[in-house]
Amino acid sequence: MMIKRNTFIICILLSSFLQAQNTGEVDSIAVRLLDKMTGVIGDLNSLSVDVRTENDFENDLFENERHFGTHSMKFNGPSKMTIHSHGDKGNRAIWYNSEYLTYYSFDENNYVRFEVPDTTIKMVDSVNAKFGIKFPAIDIFYPDLTDDILDYFDHVKFLGLKTVENVECFHVMAFNKETSLQIWITNDAMYLPHKYLFIEKDNNHMQHEGTFANWSFNPYIPDEVFEFTPPKNAKLISIMSKS
Prior knowledge:
The protein is of the alpha+beta class. The protein is 21% helix and 41% strand. A 12-stranded mixed beta sheet has the order 7-8-9-10-11-1-2-3-4-5-6-12, with helices on one face.
């Protein structure tokens, strides 16, 4: 594995040198790195990871106000997920068991439950479109992330090796007139996303940042972890659809 890793790094650096004068808008090195990252994640049967997020929102003063959060995420196959979140937007959790999504507020001791599609990706898209519920860093786990980036952004570039919080990473940037996305991918055998930064250039340069830690690959996660049991006196509520 180490030999393969080093060979891949040498190929990247050599290709970068040979393509230094290339004026193409899409860098093949960046695409290969993104494919490596999504391929590794896609091959996993289960996954546990923590994410630290920083997100800008427009406040009542019409200024960017930054909110911080920490999230513990678990996935099992294509149709089970749970996220426990703590931060400026409150303490909350999501359980998804391939049939229902439950969103629970620890602070208010209430929850909502939806009947949803039977895969995580379809569920996320459906719930976000209907109710505006957002899932931290979820786009990074999409198997079609590379294709989505190529479809949305005009430029995709490899910016070299960088050290981020003592972790050596491959630095990839994608951008157009409205937005930019940077992803730092670990320079090791796994090619994991270490950090991302999304900037809305057309929306007061709001920033959305996430840093990953405590990866666990193919852990045993019992199905019960993805089932929600209402706490004592918890109230079932309803929310209005966006449409």
